[in-house]
Design brief:
Elements (H helix, E strand, L loop, with lengths): L3 H7 L3 H13 L6 H4 L4 H4 L4 H4 L5 E4 L3 E4 L31 E5 L13 H18 L2 H25 L1 H23 L6 E5 L12 E5 L17 E2 H16 L1
Antiparallel strand pairs: 1-2, 2-3, 3-5, 4-5, 4-6
Length: 250
Amino acid sequence: MVSFLTVWSASRSPEAESLTLDQTLSSRYTSPFDSIFPNCIDLITVQEYELHNPNSMILSSTNDSYIIGNLESYDKRQYPSWLDQKYASKTPEGQGFGHSFVIPRKRVFNIVDHEATANDCALIKEMKTHFLTYWNDPVHRKELLNSVENVFGAQNNKLSEKNEAEFEATSPRVTEDYHEMAKQFLRLEAEDFVFAFHPYPDYSVGHLHMHVFPRDEALRRVSSKQHDKKTIPLEAVLQVEEEDKLKSRV
């Protein structure tokens, strides 16, 4: 099994890693969320999340966070340029089979926001605990898999409707791979997941969200790698916060 964290760490020089973390976590982005991103508020407003998103994508909730499914499939082969020309340059698939998200109910801009790591990182620790508690229930594992399957199937329908001949040429292998990955996915344990963030300024949504996806390369081989360089593991965030705390005591 190839660890995502191992690959991520090996791909960065100590200078590059230090620069990345210093720019994101140590050099905070503290401007008020509402004034900087007024057009993003309705995209993922916490109190109205259910009003703006399919209920089927909200898999679990606590007083502090939601677990939501991915609206895009994990398989880049489901986004050919003949379906949409924009996919010739960039495809929107997730970072691995079962890629999902944990988001706080409280409005927090990004992992670089002080509120994301306040109180000894209480919020992001809760977000991880929420997912692990959810995943430890076999019923919920199948629920998350069903979410993956529904998106996978919906994307296949789009392909079939657009060009049935092209779809039929690739569908058997793509479907076979899905069933094999689904079996592997259900066997994953807590240590088999990556918990990570895309820090400002290289981010997509103006609301803090934790990416959760498998570490194993076998469950990422047909998924996006384009975001890996900007993906900061939770472990790195916690390490930097702990180092900052120790420095402040000196």
